[in-house]
Design brief:
Mean pLDDT of chain A: 96
Number of strands of chain A: 7
Shape of chain A: globular
Oligomer: homotetramer
Largest sheet of chain A: 7 strands, mixed
Low-confidence stretches of chain A: none
Helix content of chain A: 40-55%
Radius of gyration of chain A: 17 Å
Chain lengths: 245, 245, 245, 245
């Protein structure tokens, strides 16, 4: 019988590969989940590109982003992004940090990302914008110190997605599956908004539409249909993570 | 000997996969056809992503979008789009509802979609524009109520394609094959028009050119050549639907 | 021992597949070559999508675009494009007619296509622009009548490529291989020019640079390197045409 | 036991294929490395498209770009780009010359390429711009004469990347791996900057951020993670170069 932690390792490897296969993550970026049995821990792979991650790559961290079992395996330099958000937001159980080519233009220009179709509404009514330069001045453009992670978590506040100036985005979810769904569909919304800008004035969803469409989209039916779709695409491409024996 | 209904199930699964493979449909959206033997029924898959659909997924609906054989299989939430158009338009035998990345920028900005080359003329001289907000106020940005479907069908009127503000497009055809042809070539026309907008002023086809080119394009030769092309591409990718035994 | 006509059939099927694989041709468009043994004939496939063409699909035409061996196989409706240009231009031995997504924006807006890098110079110093509406008024946006083909050939004049308003491009070559090379590299030049337009003012090659770069690019070394590259890519994708036994 | 020169041949073939697979190189362009045992020599393939190169294609050149072992194998016409830079810059051990579709728009418009995210900082604070026309007037838009290569090397100066007007880019690295990393990530930075231009004003990294992020990105961890990622992608696609026996 599979135990929940093995299942979590597999699910997290799968989530990494899905979000990479759908074009949001590339060689960099990462997805984590809160530990299924201990809310004071989170799971995140060792420093490796998302589309290559296997269940055996998953490490366990405290919310201070310390490895639970010390080892010489290298974690991501930016693991504090995950730890500080899990610490600040008990309702968050999945986080994706990425630098997608659709989201970056908004991070580079400061243009506001807005929901332009039903699925894009999962970004929520407000998407905060964080600029590391304001609090930390010149940095190597990575979030590696606990105080930087905590600053980002404060910027996220009660929302579900935060844009990072000249850097990327961090996307949270009430579940790992929701973080995946939100990462992919806000990426696609950004692509649509970018393409629309070539034509003229964008007409986004109203606040009411955003709230209604977000609630509708995060139900089991659309989330499940998308999960089957992404998993089958990965399977057809021969990219499912290996099962550990 | 294959019976017509089995053939229809296969053709509809094939149509879903073609339109997905050619980049118009993604994880969401759907194609239906009128029942080949009973004009008061239509066929549409259970709630599943188009590129995964198999003949065994196809369900039968009344024009009021009720399942003919009650079951606990989940239909698409938006099946009323299909039912209400089949009800209003006896000449329509295939319908595709989609959210393509080429069409959406027109739905998001309100810019007019126009035929810019011969094949694009299959959109017709007029492409109406429907905004759910006008009649229904804030909604979850899906068409799930019969009155919403009926409103969309009225907007479509005698035309063959309707744009849906901040949502997508619904494309009809005199046959399933024509709905597929129109979905793909209007998607490509939209992409061309979008790319042209980066260069300067678009010079669309005249009304006369549109009518002549539309009639020319919907003949058996170009439609058949395209069908062979799309089916062969799908076959080479190993993506033809399975034959039910 | 292979005879020259068999070799020509194979080369023409290969050329069709190369230009399709490299993204210039899609379900429509076609490539022809002058008959290797009889300058008053040309070879062109039956009406079929370019990426599917096999040596056995190749038909032989007079310069008046009549089938040499009458049959009930369907030729392309636009074969007169080829016949009329071969008639007017004895130095042309290969022709490609296409509707590429990079070239079309220039045909739709009337913006001038210009050489923006070394390989793009193979378009030549002048790329004429033909609008069927000027001489023929409203048409179905296809060139199916001998007088339409002759008008297009006059517009081409002594040049190597002609843009067709709201339609596509016709590209000629001193050899079949040159027509392929010119089709692909002018398509890529168009894509570069289109992408550059998003940034600012395009600075094209001077007339002198264009002439020098064109002569340099059409030598055996670059043409041969490209041919090996395209053929190998096709082979790796399993898309080489079958050899007839 | 593998000898260092065999390893260098393999590494250079691999580097060519990686940079091609990641979309920076196409049928043209080339990568070289300084000879691992003799700083007065460099290694570069015979005239062949990058994605096809095998270890057996690698040739050895003096810094005057003469073949060390005369043969009738054809070298690239532009090998002087490599020789002249290795001559002028003892700290350079890898060079890539390319014409990527993301970089070219900057070469065509003269718009300044700027670091817009952390990884893009590897272009350095200054990216010089070279226009062959200024010193040499009309040319075939290739760098084939030693004095042209030397002029380009002077333009590069102490920097790591130079844009070439209406031509492409030449990218150097302290190692072959660094040249690959810089070629791919500056290409992606260019794509992001181009896409951002459609939205509004680009806000690049500050000089301090660029310096810090560049130093951070060129460490072993990110370079190694990227190398594993690119090599695995190539392996999955069946595109690793053959090992010579």
């Amino acid at each position: 019988m599979p135990n929940p932690l093995d299942e979590a390792h597999y699910a997290l490897a799968l989530a990494n590969r899905i979000v990479a296969y759908e074009g949001v993550l590339d060689g960099f970026g990462h997805i984590s989940m809160r530990h299924p049995g201990n809310p004071n821990r989170y799971l995140l792979a060792r420093s490796r590109s998302p589309e290559l991650i296997e269940p055996g790559d998953i490490l366990e961290f405290t919310l201070d982003s310390e490895l639970v079992v010390p080892s010489d395996v290298l974690p991501y330099g930016e693991c504090v992004i995950h730890g500080e958000i899990y610490k600040a937001r008990p309702d968050v159980r999945g986080i994706c940090h990425h630098h997608s080519a659709a989201i970056l233009p908004f991070c580079i220009t400061g243009n506001e990302l807005k929901p332009v179709n039903g699925l894009g509404s999962v970004m929520g009514v407000t998407v905060p914008f964080w600029d590391s330069r304001e609090e930390f001045g010149d940095t190597p453009m990575v979030v590696t110190k606990p105080e930087e992670g905590a600053s980002l978590a404060r910027a996220l506040g009660p929302h579900w997605m935060v844009l990072m100036r000249r850097h990327g985005a961090t996307v949270a979810g009430a579940t790992l599956q929701e973080a995946v769904f939100r990462s992919i569909h806000t990426h696609r919304n950004a692509e649509l908004q970018l393409r629309s800008a070539a034509l003229g004035q964008v007409s986004p969803l109203s606040k009411g539409e955003t709230e209604l469409a977000c609630a509708y989209s995060l139900r089991e039916r659309p989330m499940g249909r998308a999960w089957e779709y992404w998993t089958t695409r990965l399977a057809k491409a021969g990219e499912l993570p290996p099962r550990v024996s």
